Amino acid sequence: MAHSKALLVLENFIGGKFVPCSSYIDSYNPSTGDVYCRVPDSGKEEVEAAVKAAKDAFPIWSSKSPLERSQILNKLADLIEHDLEEFAQAESKDQGKTITFARTVDIPRAVHNFRFFASSILHHVTECSEMPAMGCVHYTSRAPVGVAGLISPWNLPLYLLTWKIAPAIACGNTVVAKPSEMTSVTAWMMCKLLEKAGVPPGVVNVVFGTGARAGEALVCHPDVPLISFTGSTRTAQRITERSAPHCKRLSLELGGKNPAIIFDDADLSQCIPTTVRSSFANQGEICLCTSRIFVQRGIYSEFLKRFVAEAKKWKTGNPSDPTIDVGALISKEHLEKVRTYVKKAQAEGARVLCGEGVDPLALPPGNQKGYFMLPTVIAEVKDESCCMQEEIFGPVTCVVAFDTEEEVIRRANGVKYGLAATVWSGNVGRVHRVAHRLQSGLVWTNCWLVRDLNLPFGGMKASGIGREGAKDSYEFFTEVKTITIKH
């Protein structure tokens, strides 16, 4: 990484080369509040060049065998893994997340994404159907779609970018990726490894910049037939409108307002530490984080007491300190937005039990201007409050009581989102019943964030369209053709 005095200046990666841009935007280190990096402010011209490079590379890349592509993906995984510590340091500095989280979650998962799709691409089978009476055999074949437009968010930068790039190129597509302008460094670092891994020029192009300019140009480009986007529901609405005239295929992984439902027979010794983690991991900046906790009335006061005590143990501070649990939020604006929700809850009569505005936040001298917030627990919030309805995306969770199974299912489903939910109970029948009735793409019971990448990932309602995973990503990133042979 560059010396802190000298700003790091990123360049777009187009056609296998780093290309300077005519204008740049500032990127901040969230833990200090200082500008530490300059990111290209790309627009139509840069996207046009990247799409052309991707189109030119498509015939050769798509004609490679799955095995050849698999070997290249595995090599790229090895190279990232070799530089794991450097990537982790960069991710922590750029995003504000703790070095521990970057080391143990973000970068290992980015490596695993490439390895997983390098393996899964070798194991798909196509369908076949016989019609002896007609003397016909039908079978299907799958082919890559073309140039994939990939737009990834700032909360898990390399983790979610590679979750898109890996299946796209494994299937034989070429890509133009646009990471968040707030967290572009690890994507740029990955570009430096592509040639060494054997990725031909133009197969992976990365254009940096804002959604309004670079993202818009990518979504509107007539030669980009599919868009995979992870981010906010509002941006997804814009993407849907702008891509509609071109009939693009879309995969949209959007926000969540995820409930945890804790029944009175839950094992609190497991439930409380896991629910603290599901509420505050990565500063609460994960689309799968728990932001509504429904606790059955019989255990409500005990749960609250123990939960708040556990939340207060989480240390907030300099993300590069390995003993820290909560790093900085992504930006000054985002921190203000999250604080506003806490103020609104107080104005509505809810009680803030710990965290923001209640406990003192002591920061090291170098982090005084950073965007920090303590884990915050709010009780007695009404279901119709914006704190219970809208995605806060910060270290804030709301705890409320419930009485019956029927009531809690209705209340848990009473938001526009449907991404993830957790259910805590020792009753197997209840766990299945509740899981079936929750309007949620993912339901974890007695655990959180245990993922098998083979299985579908994605949400219902305003939480998105489409699913990602071994089979789902393969289907999204390929076109299917039915071939009939008369013999």
TrEMBL record:
GO molecular function: aminomuconate-semialdehyde dehydrogenase activity; retinal dehydrogenase (NAD+) activity
An example Gene Ontology CC term for this record: cytoplasm
Alphabetical GO biological process terms: 9-cis-retinoic acid biosynthetic process; retinal metabolic process
Database matches in InterPro entries: Ald_DH/histidinol_DH, Ald_DH_C, Ald_DH_CS_CYS, Ald_DH_CS_GLU, Ald_DH_N, Aldehyde_DH_dom
Superkingdom per UniProt: Eukaryota
Locations listed in the record: Cytoplasm
Active site positions: 253
Domain Aldehyde dehydrogenase stretches: 23-483
Pathway annotation: Amino-acid degradation; L-kynurenine degradation
Catalysed reactions listed for this entry: 2-aminomuconate 6-semialdehyde + NAD(+) + H2O = (2Z,4E)-2-aminomuconate + NADH + 2 H(+)
Job description of the protein: Catalyzes the NAD-dependent oxidation of 2-aminomuconic semialdehyde of the kynurenine metabolic pathway in L-tryptophan degradation.
Entry's family note: Belongs to the aldehyde dehydrogenase family.
Protein name listed in UniProt: 2-aminomuconic semialdehyde dehydrogenase
Upper taxonomic lineage: Eukaryota, Metazoa, Chordata, Craniata, Vertebrata
